[in-house]
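Researcher: Please generate the 3D structure of the following complex. Treat every line as part of one assembly.
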Amino acid sequence: MPGTQPKEAMNPKLIAAAYIDTWNEGDARKRGLLFDEHWTNDARYEDPLMQGEGVGAIGALADAVRERFPDFRFQLRGDANGHGRYVRLAWSLGPAGQVAPIEGSDVIELHNGRISRVIGFIDRAPTA
Amino acid sequence: MPGTQPKEAMNPKLIAAAYIDTWNEGDARKRGLLFDEHWTNDARYEDPLMQGEGVGAIGALADAVRERFPDFRFQLRGDANGHGRYVRLAWSLGPAGQVAPIEGSDVIELHNGRISRVIGFIDRAPTA
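Model: Done. Output below.
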């Protein structure tokens, strides 16, 4: 719906960067600041492996990823893009400086410029 | 949300095929049957170029594509996949049997097994 939220469509790269930063932030206080600034409080996250509703639940998912893969970091693959109130981005998850074993693509829906919903997909994962 | 709509997660390829068939169907009556079977009446469609709410509006978008590119057909690229109530698929649009000049990727949300929302993205398009 062009025109209703023009500002959001203009910054898919900023939104994507804030989104990845949130997943990578291990300090709960700093992550809380990222949630406050860039997410709605009732944001929903759904991918094939994990679901969470509310930034508290989503923070717990990030903690679970960090606990399972302590040395892994999320990184953007390519350029994020978007239209209207949607942003899409591709990411990798792996050890810093090495080939990332896990890749995915997420679609973010914004509400008043904040991340209110994420639909995530896995593009590549170890079969073992 | 695993378990709530397991049937939908099982058939992303069928949903994707019905979705592409709907875009390709030039006969209004046959397209109406596809809408009745596979879409909710109030389905929403949004991509960077077109938006429509309701199957009537979405049918008009399909007519507009056909009018602009009479010899083009939509084709699936790769395998559709999905989880929960979401399906994602990649498509191409071009003349039958030739390299397609336009490619995109869409995320479909289902409601009771029917297409209720589409978020579309363009992956490749002529710059001219």
